[in-house]
Structure formats: structure tokens, C-alpha cells
What we know:
two-stranded antiparallel sheet, Barwin-like endoglucanases, eight-stranded mixed sheet
Amino acid sequence: MNKKILLFIGMIVLIFFGSCKKSQVDLSLKQQQFISKHNSAENKASSVASVSYSNCPTPVNCSLTLKATIETFNVYKHNTSGYIIYKAKMAIDADGSPQAYGPNNSGLDWTANAGYPGNWWGVVTDANGNPIIQGAGDPFPGLYVSTTSLVNSAYATTNPLRYVDSGNIPFFVLPSAITSTNGIALGDVGFVYKTTNGKGCYAIFADGGPAGKLGEGSMYLANKLGINSNPKTGGTSSGIIDYFVFPGSGYGQGTIPTIQQINAIGSAKMKKVGGLELATCL
């Protein structure tokens, strides 16, 4: 065979195997267990699946497709299940909590994280562009009405109950770079896991995040994972949080599921792809 052709083939093999090895360092033990269990189940159920992994030295990693790299965190698609997997930090998103924002930083989070006069993006505004103030019949009179991308359409725009309360519902945040190319919709369920203490929680995709940012969760979710949930001082900048996202698993826009519903959907999704036992949070 022509030496140039042999050299070209050798380069392709090195690139392929190299990419598999690279992805291995991006995955936690829990993620590798999940993928390994699913691949094992697939191989038993289908000879085609077995053949597809036969030429790969590390099946756990070669069953993944790199979809994006955001803030140095790699986002993968697990090819056979379609689930999205990544390991990243966790910033705290107070959005949706009726306590989140208020005049002069009177809320749980800095007011600037909801916008500023003339450009408010995280709170409901009136016809003049000024933030709506909660009244006597609302949960926290005097504070602003904080919003999330996912809403309960049964309530009016100015009602705090329309939005996903960060203090009472486990949710995570995703940028459009991930959702737009992977079939992920608002309300889809996922599993979030802290690798350093073994605490996990099923959660929903409830809020869109800024481009170029990855790894954010609600106050409730942070609490359940043993992370400081203070929006001003909490969170973790270390890439120690596993995220599993199940595209097409939620109720869609207009419905905010209960924690029991989130757990039921998440548990069924995980059991379907290998039976990895994971804890729910209540």
C-alpha cells in the first residue's frame, strides 16, 4: 500500500483514539458508570450495538459525541440514548423566587442581576418599563416579581406564582447553544449530582442562561446538593457537578411540575438506560 495512504490512515486512527481518551478525563465516575451500564444493556439487546462499539478501545467514551465546549466544559450527547451529559460548575440562580430582587438590593440577589433602568430582563415591568412591585396580596410585598423562562400559564404575567420558584423547585439553567441543537425544551427533566459528596437530585430545565455560560442551578437544588445556596455568595466555581439532561422528557411550556412529578419522570428515564440507582430529593 502507498506509504502516504498508510500515513494518512495512521493519523486518522490517532485522532479517533485520542478524542476518546480526551473525553474520558471530562467525565466523572458516575457518568462513566451510567454510560457503561447503558452500553452493556444495548449490547445485550442488539448485535448491531455490539458491533458498533467493537472497534473502540474505550466504549464508555466513544459512544459520545462532543456537542459544544462552553467555559472549558465539554458537553456530550450520549449517542444511543440521546441524553446530554456534561460536568461543570454551579452558580446560583435566584430567578423565579418572589424574594429574588427588590429596590436597592433588598432581595436575596443583587438587583443588577435582573437588569437596570431601561433594560430589565429578570423582572416583570409595567408599560413604562419600571419593575412591578409586589402588593399586599403577594408573597413578599415591596419586592419585584422575578421571572423564569418556564411559566405556569394559569397565572397572570404579574403574579409571582406564574414563575418557577428557585427556593422551592430544583431546576437548572441552559444556554441556547445547547438546547437549540439537541431537542431540549423548557420543562425537560435531568439529574444533577455533586461528585464530591454523592448527593444528587432530579431537576427541570426552567431558565435560559446567557451565551458563553454553563453550570447554574436553583437555590433549592443547591441546598439538596450540599452547596451554599446564597445567590450573592454561594455556588461553586469548580467543575464538580454532573448534569444529565433528558431531551423531550417534560410537560413543556406552560406547566410547572411538582417535585414528585419531576422525580417520577427522572427515575423512569434513568432506569430505562441501564438501571443506575440514583437518589431523589424532596
